[in-house]
């Protein structure tokens, strides 16, 4: 059996930046075990698989270790493959996922994703969190899925050197660290050691939590965010109440064939 595979740098204007994702179009679903093996072999933060079902696409995401319920950059990468390589011409791509129906549209090479907004509740800053991050956050929140530590300045976030053996013991899937930005509305970094990803380069799903928080704190609904990982990526965001818009560009790095 042969499968087409694409590697796409999402939230990037050129290769070697943004967040790389593998995208594999399917005619029918493979077994969960086989898809997990492929994701492990790819060894990228996410491998996306999709199957077309009439007017929409069923979409699933796998890290090297597990299937996840929501992934932003691999959704953007999947839409890029559909538009660029599958002769798709509709205004928007509709994905059916474990997080419900997601929409991605394209305008002049820029992809805009419509995702759910996730609120947060403030929790006490504990020594476990401070020890794991190496710095005590000013504020700490728990969201629907992720923990979010807020710092007062961008440089603190950029300089973080977490102890991943301790981060993996914290609650939540992602450990999001964020602060007001100097050149952007806010900056962030996201650590996901629980799923085999020490630091995710650009995390679309984390902005389901980040955008509502910063929109309320800054009093504005249109936001430009920067994820300050080594590769880095810019995200154009909008707060829509119970939804968020997350937009960016994507470039194809590789097209190939998997032989099984």
TrEMBL record:
Keyword Isomerase on entry: yes
Keywords: Isomerase
Pfam family, one: PhzC-PhzF
Location of the active site: 46
Domain of life: Bacteria
Enzyme Commission numbers on file: 5.1.-.-
GO CC term (a single one): cytoplasm
Molecular-function annotations in GO: isomerase activity
Enzyme class label: isomerase
Family per similarity comment: Belongs to the PhzF family.
Name this protein carries in UniProt: Putative enzyme
Species, as recorded: Pseudodesulfovibrio profundus
Source lineage: Bacteria, Pseudomonadati, Thermodesulfobacteriota, Desulfovibrionia, Desulfovibrionales
């Amino acid at each position: 059996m042969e499968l087409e595979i694409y590697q796409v740098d999402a939230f990037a204007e050129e290769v070697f930046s943004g967040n790389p994702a593998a995208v594999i179009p399917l005619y029918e679903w493979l077994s969960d075990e086989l898809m997990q093996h492929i994701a492990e072999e790819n060894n990228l933060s996410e491998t996306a698989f999709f199957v077309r079902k009439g007017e929409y696409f069923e979409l699933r995401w796998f890290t090297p270790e597990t299937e996840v319920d929501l992934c932003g950059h691999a959704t953007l990468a999947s839409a890029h493959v559909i538009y660029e390589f599958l002769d798709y011409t509709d205004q928007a791509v509709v994905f059916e996922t474990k997080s419900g129906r997601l929409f991605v549209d394209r305008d002049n090479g820029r992809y805009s994703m419509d995702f759910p907004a996730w609120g947060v509740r403030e929790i006490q800053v504990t020594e476990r969190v401070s020890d794991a991050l190496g710095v005590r956050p000013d504020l700490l929140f728990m969201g629907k899925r992720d923990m979010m530590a807020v710092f007062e300045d961008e440089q603190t976030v950029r300089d973080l050197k977490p102890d991943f053996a301790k981060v993996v013991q914290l609650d939540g899937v992602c450990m999001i660290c964020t602060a007001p930005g100097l050149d952007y509305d806010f900056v962030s970094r996201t650590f996901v050691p629980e799923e085999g990803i020490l630091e995710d380069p650009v995390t679309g799903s984390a902005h389901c939590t980040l955008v509502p928080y910063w929109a309320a704190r800054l009093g504005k609904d249109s936001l430009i965010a920067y994820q300050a990982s080594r590769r880095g990526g810019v995200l154009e965001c909008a707060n829509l109440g119970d939804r968020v818009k997350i937009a960016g560009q994507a470039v194809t790095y590789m097209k190939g064939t998997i032989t099984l």
